[in-house]
Design a protein that fits this description.
By secondary structure, the chain is of the alpha+beta class. The protein folds into three domains: 62 residues, Orthogonal Bundle (434 Repressor (Amino-terminal Domain)); 229 residues, no CATH class; 60 residues, no CATH class. It has 16 helices and six strands. The strands form two sheets. A four-stranded mixed sheet has the order 1-4-5-3, sandwiched between helices.
Length: 383
């Protein structure tokens, strides 16, 4: 009998957002027994119990008897709503990101992803605004609005994915993972959001964390004041990155107190009216009093929940993983079934439907061939 991997049970349980007690009830054992499974005090778990665990958690039974396949070291995870989000929801998303990092490492053996391309700002002690300028210069973006931020981020080697939860408390988060010595940064966006204007700010906010903040610290021990300070810095970075001072101020200065004008330039700058008002105030184009007055008008109009034009520009979906899987299948490196089997042989047995969710694949991709016309990845040449 193969020994049961208690770490995998804990990961799968947290992945599904269950407590030890909830899982124990579902598989008809005591809470203490589940704890002993997870800590390795009971290694020879009966096969029928493994099957029960597999059914409840929706992971293949092999998942629970495999050794951990990669050396993963996870850094801090920055959640935008850390103070009001239940820890179980945060844990579930962190575990999912670790699984994505493993799959990324597997795919990287076969396809060439864009290399991580970030400036080294360590030791420079830059302000959020200066860091935003530095990144724009490094990526050669100029001072114009960024046409497609999702693609820009992916082309520079940052992994973007989406997630769904039972809570709306999590807007977005970013995570650092060291995969066998390779730095991997992941940005996860809520699939509950569909407006590109709001998602663009989320992406830029997470870029701020990636460039400005320490990834070796434990975000769980941050004080409320420390957390708010980091969030404020990430917001300042996002505003400066998306709305460079000279070009944005030149635009807004034409009618800085006219909400209808902000609505007109919203398509150009691809950010929300609320974000543009905040940036205008920060740059001194409007006063704090004018800003507060215009926000009250937005509140009265119902624009704080849903702005005009929000539904006119849908967010671009991340495609790095779907491109990679499609390239492998299109070039007959793997059939969909072989892809799932090979990943299992590598040490990560997962169900096809779960892989599709994790990798933002269209439903049926791993059972039905699905292709896209252009890919950001290419097959690695055989040496």
């Amino acid at each position: 009998m193969k020994l049961f991997n208690g770490n995998r049970l804990k990961a799968a349980r947290q992945y599904r957002g269950l407590t030890v007690e909830e899982l124990a009830q579902k598989i008809n054992v005591s809470k203490q027994t589940v704890s002993q499974y997870e800590t390795g005090k009971i290694e020879n778990v009966p096969f029928d119990k493994i099957l029960s665990i597999s059914n409840v958690l929706n992971f293949p039974y092999k998942y629970f008897i495999q050794k951990n396949c990669l050396n993963l070291q996870t850094g801090a995870t920055y959640f935008r709503s850390l103070m009001k989000t239940s820890k179980k929801y945060r844990l579930a998303q962190e575990i999912k990101m670790e699984h994505i990092a493993v799959i990324y490492s597997f795919l990287n053996e076969y396809v060439t992803f864009p290399e991580l391309n970030l400036p080294d700002l360590s030791g420079e002690n830059l302000s959020p605004t200066d860091a935003a300028k530095a990144l724009r210069e490094y990526w050669k973006l100029g001072d114009n609005p960024i046409e497609n931020l999702m693609r820009t981020v992916e082309q520079n080697g940052i992994i973007v994915t989406t997630f769904a939860t039972d809570t709306d408390d999590i807007d977005a988060f970013s995570q650092y993972v060291d995969v066998n010595g390779t730095d991997v940064f992941l940005i996860a966006l809520s699939s509950n959001k569909e407006s590109a204007f709001r998602i663009n700010f989320d992406i830029a906010h997470e870029l701020g964390h990636i460039l400005l903040h320490e990834w070796s610290e434990d975000e769980e021990v941050l004080t409320r004041e420390e957390f708010k300070a980091k969030e404020k810095e990430a917001n300042e970075f996002a505003a400066a990155f998306l709305m460079p001072e000279t070009s944005f101020a030149s635009d807004v200065a034409l009618e800085p107190q006219n909400l209808d004008y902000y609505k007109q330039i919203k398509r150009k700058w691809k950010v929300s009216i609320a974000a543009m008002l905040y940036r205008s105030c920060d740059l001194g184009i409007i006063t704090q009093g004018q800003y507060q007055y215009m926000i009250r008008i937005m509140q009265n109009k119902g624009w704080r929940k849903s702005e005009p034009l929000d539904n006119t520009m849908r967010a671009v979906k991340p495609t790095l993983f779907s491109d990679a899987v499609d390239v492998l299948i299109d070039n007959k490196v793997f059939t969909p079934k072989e892809f799932v089997d090979e990943l299992s042989e590598m040490g990560l047995a997962m169900n096809p439907d779960e892989l599709e969710v994790l990798l933002n694949l269209s439903k049926g991709t791993l059972s039905v061939k699905n292709t896209e016309p252009m890919k950001m990845v290419m097959l690695k040449s055989k040496e």
